[in-house]
Here is the input.
Amino acid sequence: MKKLSTSRIAAASVAAMLAASPALAQDRTFTISWWGFNGDALQEIIVDPFQEMCDCEVIFETGNNSDRLSRLQLRGGEGVDVIYLTDRFSQLGIELGLFQPIDRAQVPNIDELYDLAQTPQGEYGPAYSIGRVGIVYNADEVEAPITSWNDLWREDLAGSVSLPGITTTAGPMVVLRAGERAGVNAYEDPDAAFAEVSELQPNILTNYNTGSEMINLFSTGEITVSMAQDFALGRLQAAVPSVVWADLDDGAIATLNTINIPTGSENVELAHQFLNFVLSAEIQQTLAERGVDAPVNNGVDLTEEQAAPWTYGDEMISSLNQIDYVPLNANLTSWIDRWNEIFGM
Here is the structure.
């Protein structure tokens, strides 16, 4: 494994920039909006060194994507300096006019990222982490391996599959895959796509809204197959070791976690420096090695064991399908109604 230096190298480079910036005053706060997961690790890897560099107090706003974006909207884009969101919700924030373009000259580490992470939503925030949505199944219970999204419709899986709810990150992807199965664009021909969703319904035991719900369904033996995001795989296999990630011929679906600077940020220059810090190879390496986030910096070098839980490497990342959230968000309200009619919700 290539050994990289610790986060303090990245800290030193940013500290030099900060020292050269007389406009950065003492006694100020810098507010990060994020989920609140992995608090101890993020405090050590990101918050403490950045706090030392900026000579400021870092404070937090936590919650899920929807709640935090709603709070930002209610405040007219003010109250936080950077906000972490999944790509579906960051696209909503862009459409609501809540984020400002990123000055890439102030974030040179963007150039070190995988292409799909550099400008996932135009001139706005880059991705700092990547994941994938695919299919997991209990190899001891499912007779034939699952190798395609179309396998979800197999007759031998009747009543044994769970799907993510339509309002979750992965839920709308079911409709997109149903459209692919029908040979249509789900945005242009939703009738054909939802006809395939109806065909899938006999195989579905239930919809789930959290990873914990899905893991519990496997643990109790109620389901043998599910759509899932890869970040849940470790906990799922700890609960049911015979569950495996399906190697799909038609590819898993990329999910990106982004960082944006709201229009009302009071520390815009510092926010750009924070982005550059978080995207550095050193910080990304440490986050991956500590099991916090999958890296998007091309300079990160992981052993096979370190890389096992992550969406990582050129080959895997180039195989992923990508989602355009502009048409998805525009169609989601009508999709939710049609979904609920099929699944009786």
In short: The two ends are 50 Å apart (CA to CA). The chain is about 40% helix and 15% strand. The mean pLDDT is 91. Strands lie at 29-34, 57-62, 82-86, 99-100, 127-138, 161-164, 204-208, 225-229, 243-245, 253-262.
